[in-house]
Amino acid sequence: MTTRNPSRCSSQRRLIGVLAGLSLLPLVGCGASDSAQQAGGEDVGMAQSFEEFEATVFQEPESGAYIVDGDVALESREQLREFYERHVLQGALIVHRVGSVDAKWDATQKLNLTYCVSTGFGSRYSAVVQAMADAARAWERAARVDFIHASSQDSACNANNGNVVFDVSPVNVNGQYLARAFFPNYARSSRNVLIDASSFSVSPPLTLTGVLRHELGHTLGFRHEHTRPESGTCFEDNSWRPLTPYDSASVMHYPQCNGTNTWALDLTQRDKDGAMGLYGMPIRCTQPVTYHDGSSLPAQYDGANCYIKPIPAGASAFVQNNNYYIQSRPGSYCPQGSFDGANCYLMPKPARGFILGNSFYKGYDACSSGSNDGANCHLLSAPAGTQAFEYGGNFYYSRAPSGPACPVAGTWFDGANCYVMPKPARGFILGNNFYKGYDACSSGTNDGANCHLLSAPWGTQAFEHAGYFYTTAVPSCQEGSYDGANCYIMRAPAGTSAFISGSAFYYAD
Q: How many Cα atoms are found within 13 Å in the side-chain-facing hemisphere of 192?
């Protein structure tokens, strides 16, 4: 079904079912008899029995629901008769309502709108999951509602599953509609978002996500905007309460009903204002960022944007492709011990401890720690290029020299590369790993043929020089992981905009 360049009347027959199979929608403004013919029904201004009216209404084969106003399901024949008596005989079609009471979720349920996505979608399952998430996010950013995908229920996702508020399921109605939804007052058995196979072959700018944005509007209780008299066509009824002034560009307005929106079906500012008026201010910053190690960091709403965390002191931070980075810098890497912001803390100074020749010692005590050098107990040598010193009863050494750092514990920068160990007997390098020939693996781990000693870290290269094993070095990162150029910190959530303000990381939700 094409949606390109529709005219007001000549193309309405082709477009009439794009959103939801508008088989009963009277196209006011194109001539009543012509409209009725295009709709495949009767001119609603003519006398018509209930049975005649019922014969024009599409009924879903599986659920038995009657579809009126394109994508609105009536649960029973009794509801259809009430619909007929109240509105068809009066000359207009309407969306289902409950008296004069707003059909909306209560304060508790609106924050727990759980749903499942049927695995019956097969190869299209992932596309539906993503489209639902994107459509739900649009409404969550507009109002205080929370759609939650209960993926654990997907394998049993149907109208009988009471563990979720509603199910998202496939249906085959041969293009009678692309998708249809429900209103909050419906019983669980009728709370379904049903998606026809035709939804997967729509042409841009119409997308499955756009269709679901419209349908999720119905699940929140929102009516078709084109029922307002300002539309001048596609009138449904007067059973609605305005939330905002008329919006011809609304996501809830059919484009072919004198709408000024596009088939992209995006929320307008008035859509957002109306949703917020009904459900309250949106919950902000619910999406965590993905930290460099794969873990999640929460964000907090600061009244304007989503605050994540401070930038490391002294770091030069930037954003690229919605990722947060800091520039790598020398001097914060400590091959042994820990960086305290100025130097590398090693250990408390032991009893009779002293420094000699840039090495840490203690007086001989049978060397309960350290190694016996024949006179004292040698504890540790300061790494090449650093200076051992004592401060406040503790042993320190100055931070690593300017330049690269060594990411593997127990290795250190020698001014050019990272010293790993003396090459052992029968030692060799294979595939950027250090090995030695099998000797019952007194060191290393048995790989079934040899003893694996160490893998060179990502971004470095293992090599041998003058009887020693080395790796190339990488710049040090105060925080994050080196990506070959800078220090990668984390990624902003999809659909948000990462930015830096002052001395902190943020995203705009």
A: 24
Q: Which token pair is 11?
A: 């193309």
Burial class (CB in 10 A: 0-12, 13-18, 19+), 5: exposed
Q: Rounded to an integer, what distance in angstroms lies between the CA atom of residue 505 and that of residue 411?
A: 32
What is residue 27's predicted lDDT score, i.e. its pLDDT?
A: 27
Q: What is the pLDDT of residues 391-407, one digit of tens each?
A: 999 898 886 544 456 76
**pLDDT digits 0-9 by tens, 205-259:** 999 999 999 999 999 988 887 767 777 777 766 666 767 777 788 898 888 888 7
Which amino acid is located at 429 in the chain? I
Q: What is the rounded CA–CA span in Å between residue 480 and residue 291?
A: 8
- The CA radius of gyration of the chain, in Å to the nearest whole number, is 34
Number of alpha carbons in the 13 Å side-chain half-sphere of residue 307: 11
Can you tell me the distance from the alpha carbon of 144 to that of 135, in angstroms, rounded to the nearest whole number?
15
Tens-digit pLDDT profile for residues 357-375: 999 999 999 898 889 998 9
Q: Rounded CA gap, 238 and 203, in Å?
A: 33
Bridge partners of 363? 376
Within 10 A of 327 (CB to CB), how many other CB atoms are there? 14
Locus of tokens 């305290």: 340
Contacts 24+ apart (CB under 8 A), 117-121: 117/149, 117/151, 117/154, 117/157, 117/168, 118/154, 118/157, 118/158, 118/167, 118/168, 118/169, 118/170, 119/154, 119/155, 119/157, 120/157, 120/169, 120/170, 121/170, 121/195
Q: Is the pLDDT of residue 94 over 70?
A: no
- Contact indicator for 388, 359 with CB cutoff of 8 Å: yes
pLDDT at residue 30 tops 60: no
- 453: exposed, middle or buried (C-beta count within 10 Å: 0-12, 13-18, 19+)? buried
Q: Are 69 and 94 in contact (CB under 8 A)?
A: yes
Among candidate residues 160, 184, 180, 251, the one with its CA nearest the CA of residue 213: 251
User: What's the pTM value of the predicted model, to 2 decimals?
Assistant: 0.51
pLDDT band at 62 (very low <50, low <70, confident <90, very high): confident
3-state secondary structure labels for all residues of 424-444: CCCEEEECCEEEEECCCCCCC
In angstroms, the CA 317 to CA 324 distance is: 7
Contacts of 319 (CB under 8 A, 6+ apart): 325, 498, 499, 500
- SS3 of 140-198: the string is HCCCCCCEEECHHHHHHCCCCCCCCCEEEEEECCCCCCCEEECCCCCCHHHCEEEEEHH
Distance CA 230, CA 403 (A): 69
Task: Map tokens 């002294």 to a residue.
Answer: 314
